[in-house]
Amino acid sequence: MKVIKTINEMRKLTIEMSGTVGFIPTMGYLHHGHLSLVRLAKKKNDHVVVSIFVNPKQFQPNEDFASYPRDTEKDLQLLQDANIDAVFLPNVSEMYPENFATYITIESLSKKLEGKSRPGHFQGVATIVAKLFNIIQPQQAYFGQKDAQQVVIMKKMVSDLQFPVEIVVGPTIREQDGLAMSSRNVYLSEKERKEATILFQSLKLAEELIRKGERNPVSVKKEMNDFIKKSVGVVDYISLADPDTLDEVENIKKNTLVSLAVFFGKTRLIDNIVVHSV
Ligand code: PAF
User: Fold this and answer.
1) Residue 261: which of 234, 230, 237 has the closest Cα?
2) In which band, very low, low, confident or very high, does the pLDDT at 277 lie, cut at 50, 70 and 90?
3) What pLDDT, in 10s, does the model give residues 192-223?
4) Percent share of the chain, pLDDT over 90
5) Nearest to 202 by CA among 185, 180, 183, 182
6) pLDDT score recorded for residue 265
7) What is the CA(117)–ligand 1 centre distance, in A?
8) Index of the ligand 1 atom closest to the CA of residue 183
9) Residue 100's domain spans which residues?
10) 196 & 125 share domain
């Protein structure tokens, strides 16, 4: 496995790799969710490249860029064991040299849900992913369903800017008690970690209500909110939206993206499921 730190070196390898390249962009501190995407990519491609880059442009000034968990040595070991071709591990000045001034904005979609709570976040994500696509030139790029809005936005960017890249979505990988795997779970205290299972439980509650015939999103949100209030979690938002447009639904008719963000102390966790109403 090659460990590549510069854009020039990465471009050289891009030219050398014949056949298809599957790419998994990450911010490191890898968990089973990332590794499941690596496995998917390996099945479908001749080569697999993973990037590890904690992207400062997708964090707001009040967010956790400085404290975001990092363990490059462990990440490299995991990727070596997964037998991938290369890890792209640039530093901040390599990706954003002085006077960097070009950004990608996916209008409308970026302002909803996560974008409302984290203005500028998706501009940062889109800009870095577009740069990585240009450098690595993959045929397929892999993202986890846990970041449902990120997936929708990546698909829109690829379509609008004609990137010849297929966005492949891997399922959310969960701990045994249902908590979605996330690098940020490491921030949770023991008590918060136990109570964080409320996220998935509240999603299952929404699913049950919809399956039983509830069609009013306001009622579903209220039930979820009341349920979460029993824990130390503080709701940022609960949303029932169209999975493609991310517009809030007024009536639950077909597939609905039920998503939420909840604070446990300073840690903000997100999760979602798509409920298929019959
Ligand atoms: O999902 C993430 O870890 C990040 O948003 C990504 C896609 C690696 C871009 O920095």
Assistant:
1) 237
2) confident
3) 999 999 999 999 999 999 999 999 999 999 99
4) 99
5) 180
6) 96
7) 17
8) 3
9) 2-170
10) no
Q: Which of 34, 47, 121, 276 is catalytic?
A: 34
Whether the predicted pLDDT of 254 surpasses 90 = no
- The residue to mutate among 23, 26, 38, having the most atoms of ligand 1 within 8 angstroms of its beta carbon, is 26
| Tokens linked to 171 | 């399922």
- Do residues 148 and 191 share a domain? no
Tell me the average pLDDT of the chain.
Answer: 97
Q: Cβ(261)–Cβ(117) under 8 Å?
A: yes
Assess whether pLDDT exceeds 90 at residue 278. Answer: no
Question: What pLDDT sits at residue 177?
Answer: 98
pLDDT of amino acid 77: 98
| Furthest CA-CA distance within the chain | 57
User: Domain holding 202: CATH number?
Assistant: 3.30.1300.10
Residues with CB under 6 A from ligand 1: 25-27, 55, 58, 125, 128-129, 147, 150
Atom 2 (ligand 1) nearest CA: 26
- The number of beta carbons lying within 10 Å of the beta carbon of residue 65 is 15
Residue 82 pLDDT > 80: yes
Q: Are 26 and 55 in contact (CB under 8 A)?
A: no
Residue nearest to atom 7 of ligand 1 (CA): 25
